[in-house]
Amino acid sequence: MAQAGIHSMVGVVVRKWSPARQWLVLGIVLGSLLPDADNLAVAIATVTGGSTEGLHRTFTHSLFTAAAIVIVFQLIGRFSKRPSWGNLGLGLGIGVVLHALLDLLIWFDGVQLFWPLPLWVNLWAVVTPPEWFSNLMMPMGMFFLALYFGGLIMLAQRQGTDLGRVRSLKVWTAVQTILFLIFLALVYTMESGFMTIFGAIYLLSLGLAAVITVQMRQTIETTAKSPEGFTKTLQT
Known about the structure:
The protein has one domain (4-235). Helices cover 68% and strands 0% of the residues. The chain has helices at residues 4-13, 24-33, 38-48, 63-80, 83-106, 131-159, 166-189, 194-215, 217-222, 229-235. Mean pLDDT is 88; it is low at 224-236.
């Protein structure tokens, strides 16, 4: 299962090397979330009894898809005479690439990095993780989202940005933490139906993370000017 929280945190940390352009860092974080939206296609195929082959870690994880996003948004920015749209598209493309590369490093599965070409890249092809570890990684997805939300809260309080949204974000952080604990118990005790329930909740959490990222864009964009902020926050 995807680890959207990890990808989001990496997207924010990358601001250390990002120029201070409007919507660029926002695009990087959103782009880091975007590839795992393919889980929606997997869920629909599962519910309808269709094949899930070729739906996960394929078209949304492709370098060609990232390039297409950048080109489309550059054109939008040019024709609308709003460079921020071009910055957003560049950020989205960077985020997609970061996501795919991070999947190769931290996940024991392949990525069709050059989709639609039938070429899969898997740095862990000779490694088979134990079942308990694979099971643990599913509820950990909720934990990492809670960590991402908590990091945004501390950043906002430190920078004095988006303070009006901190209270609700604290609630969502608590919700993700509770979901982590619930699914941590269920993944080892529930004999059937776990993936259906977990998959639905995870997709909702992924959408929530995207909405919160946009809502907290001032906090995220401010970090481009103070690259040490998020790292220090996670260490305190």
